[in-house]
Amino acid sequence: MTPIRKAITATLCAAAVYSLPVAAQTPSPVAAVEAQQDRTERVAQQIWDWAELGYLELRSSGLLRSELRSEGFALREGVAGIPTAFIAEWGEGGPVIALLAEFDALPGINQSAAPVREPVEGKGAAHACGHNLFGAGSLTAAIAIKEWLEATGTPGRVRLYGTPAEEGGSGKVYMVRAGLFDDVDFTVDWHPDDENSAAARTTLANRSAKFRFRGVSAHAAGAPERARSALDGVEAMNMMVNMMREHTSMDTRIHYVITEGGAAPNVVPDFAEVFYYVRHSDADEVRALWERLESTARGAAMGTGTTVDWEIIHGNNPKLVNETLQQALDTKLRELGGFTYTDAEKEWASEISASLGDSAKPLDQVGEIQPYDITLGYGSTDVGDVSWATPTVSLRAATWVPGTSSHSWQSAAASGHSIGVKGAQFAAKAMAVMAAELYLNPELRAAARAEFDASRGPDYVYESLLGDRDPPLDYRK
């Protein structure tokens, strides 16, 4: 049985929840989060406005670093060979607890904060995955934990990892590969969503690459016999991959876009490029599928008289869930409760909801914590690699109108609205109380670490899906 399947089916800690009541933590880190409402909103809005793409998030990263520096955090900047990656730390002694902060936007979509489809002219990207909220919420949580540690005299260190280029750039993988998580005891993570949940959700492993075909250009009508179309190579590869899909296992996901295919029909293109993603729940199966993908590229080039090469852009391991931590966080979420919309927010959200069709859910769901379970998520994230380096616990917070899909104009709009900030504040509270729990509760720490060691196995050796390549700092240019 693969580690990912073990994670899905394990019930190691079903009978025990290691958790102290929120009320027992005095002074409460929740109050410290609430006091920073204005900061969360200001930072989230600014990063939303900038909407910077992966590895190009100079202003967004700089803003987070500036806020942390002003609060007394020690910073390491430009880590793992990435100008926008950083580590901020406060405290001494005790456990090291890491928080993750993302801040990159998505290309090819943009939207104002209106509840109707309203693209912003001249803006080629948007926070349709809510990473502006992710970064701001984690920032607030880190500062709240610092204040709690200071006020209580609790030994421990809190670290905020500024992690660029989650969207197809695998920024965290380079940070894990560089050993930057080697001395972290636990990592607390969150992500924007349309519901509040601490369910144990695994992810798919994935790898991507840009396949570049080169041929010979000529006049498509006057001298077609002289040409060898690079676009033919791309299309032949795509055809073979689409036939290959029938002969893959159920967890397989393969998708692509043609990023360059020529400029005019009467000019046979001498260059064409296709960008592929391959996903599966098992990292070894991704490697096996990848060999088949490379074979289609070679065959397509041979059959069309072109040449081909490719560059691996990113690769993520599947997430290793830790049920001990997830169940403890689930308890914390239920003690915190959800939140509600104001009348104005309800009116705004109702318009968004009307655009969702059959996907729409009741708006009062934002006040609920979803049932705890173990699920296989079909997305992928570089948090997966972090989870194999250190025990990791994650939550999802309702920053979007219930029923909203990520990577949509509706999620981009909500990420720039007050309801998104409410979700980020809720996530910050959950992260802060979970961190306080870990600092105070040695039994929880021991149980979580025991599960982590058992899940990885005694012979575990980390291997990234990126190989030894350097970060692709220009992949979004």
Automatic annotation (TrEMBL):
GO terms for biological process: folic acid catabolic process. Pfam families: M20_dimer, Peptidase_M20. InterPro entries: Amidohydrolase, Aminobenzoyl-glu_utiliz_pB, Bact_exopeptidase_dim_dom, Peptidase_M20, Peptidase_M20/M20A_hydrolases, Peptidase_M20_dimer. Keywords: Hydrolase, Signal. GO terms for molecular function: dipeptidase activity; para-aminobenzoyl-glutamate hydrolase activity. The keyword Signal applies. The keyword Signal applies. Residues 208-298 form the Peptidase M20 dimerisation domain. One of its GO terms (cellular component) is cytoplasm. Residues 1-24 form the signal peptide. This is Amidohydrolase. It comes from Pontixanthobacter luteolus.
